[in-house]
Amino acid sequence: MAQSDTQIQAPVAVISLLGLIALWIVAAWIADNPVALPTPGAVWQIMLAETASGELPHHMMATLWRVAAAFTLAMGFGLVIGIAMGFSNALDRWFGTWLVVFLNVPALVVIVLCYLWIGLNETAAITAVALNKTAMVAVTIREGVHALDPKLAEMARAFRMSSAARLRHIILPQLWPFIAASTRNGLAIIWKIVLVVEFLGRSNGIGFQIHLYFQLFETGYVLAYSLSFVALMLVLEYAVIKVFERRVTRWRRIAAS
User: Fold this and answer.
1) Cα–Cα distance between 139 and 106 in angstroms, integer?
2) Helices 219-236 and 172-201 sit at what angle, rounded to 10 degrees?
3) Interhelix angle for 219-236 vs 55-87, to 10°?
4) d(Cα 139, Cα 149) in Å, to the nearest integer?
5) Of the candidates 190, 177, 83, 191, which has an alpha carbon nearest to the alpha carbon of residue 139?
6) Which one, of 190, 207, 189, lies nearest residue 198 by Cα?
7) Is this structure's pTM higher than 0.85?
8) d(CA 246, CA 252)
9) Contacting residues for 148 by C-beta, under 8 A, at least 6 apart
10) Is the CATH number of domain 54-256 1.10.3720.10?
């Protein structure tokens, strides 16, 4: 059943995406202004030209590096903080307010402060993005820990499972839906914050290019660079995250059957 569901979802996703492109074509036809809203074909031609010149891959890799570094830091620290606060009521009481504070500090403020304190460099850029996402990951994982099945914990104690075995076989499988949610949400938010970081203080990356072509009022180039990274995130979602999610949650489907 799970395999057939996956097979059904793939063509549905493609058809849905084609519908979005068709809506874009209709909007471009109604607007009848290729400067303000170029057609998908025109944007595609810009993507091909920028790829052939090497500009798009160069800036794509710069942004991808910042996204990967910030995502790794945010997920790593967020997981540790979330698990610790989920299992310790004392930590949750004392530092829960800190998470609320960091959740509500605007991303732009964190970016500007990091640039002021650290300087206009890669360290400041990655630190700003990671700080913006760490609190969100920690909150999600903390709630996942609170939702753990106590009966499974009792079973682990009854069988005298080691801490490592309990983490691997009891805790992490139950936390995976929360980790997956943090991963998807994290990637979606982090790369957008990275664009702002690049927009404000970097000399390369997708955000830098968007800033450049915004000043030149080149809507087609803005769309080309933006959608190129969106396409990369779609590939990552369906080719990596969903595949890994099916593997680690296979035990749920086996238990349900």
Assistant:
1) 17
2) 160
3) 50
4) 18
5) 83
6) 207
7) no
8) 10
9) 171, 174, 175
10) yes
The widest CA-to-CA distance across the chain, in whole angstroms, is 71
**Amino acid code (one letter) for 76:** G
Higher per-residue confidence, 159 vs 115: 115
How sure is the predictor about 253, in pLDDT bands with cuts at 50, 70 and 90?
A: low
Alpha-carbon distance of 194 to 93, in angstroms, equals: 32
Q: Which helix (H) or strand (E) holds 38?
A: none
Q: Are 224 and 46 in contact (CB under 8 A)?
A: yes
Closest CA to 66 of 237, 232, 228, 207: 207
Q: Which two tokens stand for residue 203?
A: 């000399």
Which tokens is 221 given?
């180039």
Residues 6 or more apart whose CB falls under 8 angstroms from that of 15 comprise none
pLDDT tens, position by position, 230-252? 888 888 877 777 776 676 666 56
C-alpha separations of 147 from 6, 87, 156 in Å? 27, 11, 16
Report the alpha-carbon distance of residue 107 to residue 128 in Å, rounded. Answer: 8
